[in-house]
Predict the 3D structure of the following.
Amino acid sequence: MCSMTYTATGVALLMTGGGASLTAASNTSSSISAQIAALQTLPAVTTSIKSPTLLEPAWLQQQNAAEEAARRQANAPQSSVVTYSVTTRGVITASVAEFKSQANATLNDARGWSKMGVSFQEVASGGMFTLVLSEASQLPTFSPGCSAEYSCRAGQYVIINQDRWLGATTSWNQAGGSIRDYRHMVVNHETGHWLGHGHEACGGVGQSAPVMQQQSIDLQGCGFNPWPLAGELWSTQLGIKKT
Amino acid sequence: MNLKRIISPSLGQKIYTHRKVIIIIATILLVVGGYALWSKYTWDEYEVEYGKWHTTTQDQLNTALMLPAVTEKERLTKLGALKKASDGITSARTSLCNANILVSWQRIAPAFRDREEKCQRTVDTSVAFSQKMQAVITYLEQEQVLTGLISAIPVGKSELAEADWQAQAAAWHETASKVKTLPSNTDFAPTKQIAAETIVKVDVAWQEVVAAHGAKDKARYTKAQTQLADSYGSLDAIAVTGAKQLKILLDPLQAAYENAF
């Protein structure tokens, strides 16, 4: 008598008549180790645990910033004082005194370009660049690339559009930004061009916008920011390298 | 009985004369013949039964081996099925090769003794496999408890702000304490030991990060950060040791399986 049993894993042939028992080769026999090894989850679990990145705590950020400032101060370029003069073009209705005062405060603010270890000093004439408060319609007279809509930089001229100085932009105002912050931003942005910067894009939704981003036009998901980010603290104009 | 009276002129007369003797002899022949036939049938059935047991055991084992083991639930189910199949082998150990008492004396004959010995060899190799399987299952069960403890640590985020550090330090400290008290046999002991050592490293590193943070000590904090990264790297040793320990058990298991089936 001979009976055959079909199993899930192969064919088991049982010969009973002659008293001989024979089991055919099973697919499983060669892989029992692998089958059981697959039940082990410890290696997968432990190797999946990676060292987390510790975000810099507030106290360390402050310490690092202080050290960085000190280092920059120590390694400041030969010309650590940046001189500039102030002038106007066209019909100016804004207070020029306020413009001078606020622009100088912005340029020397501890949150601004002075973090590179430089200071900005207004001089009566000449200087390394000229800060201009310009009637909006006069902007294109500095360069074909300058529009009457926004502020601009052309050569040694850092030109602030009077309309923007007085009223910021629609998007800025709609977002609840203050006029003082806009003034910080526009002075830093245009001076940034003179320092050697081009335009930057938003680094990611929810992040602070680089000061060199065209925040007056499109925030690209970033938050308004009037001050240069750490990564923007360099200047080809002054020979200060990015760290 | 007189011989001359038995050797009578005709056979019919002889039978008639000595029917009682003939009946007795015939009965004896019938009983002996019947016993011989029944013995053969019993020995054949004996062989069929342990053959069936062997095949059924292998089928149960292979069915358990082929179960999926992707999810945690499936893994536990598969482990349980393997344990059940393995237990079944052990329980058959004592009784399977005991021949019927009315024929067992016949083992004095080589043909029958061979059958018994073959049965015993089959059971012995199966039991040897079962014992190795039990060792593997015990190892995996102990390891599963360790895996559960490690999995319970909340390590989801790749970036941790200072507000998260205390909770991390507490979680690793608690895990380190629990791992130390895990039960372990000889097979699992090396895995447990390396797990305890490396998890304590992470625990100590986290405590140092928290302490340096509390002290606002930059140098100490920087060192603690490095120590923390190194300690996480050392966790890989658990995987290496775990795989090695299981392999030590699986290699003889594979050999035992091939020997038994």
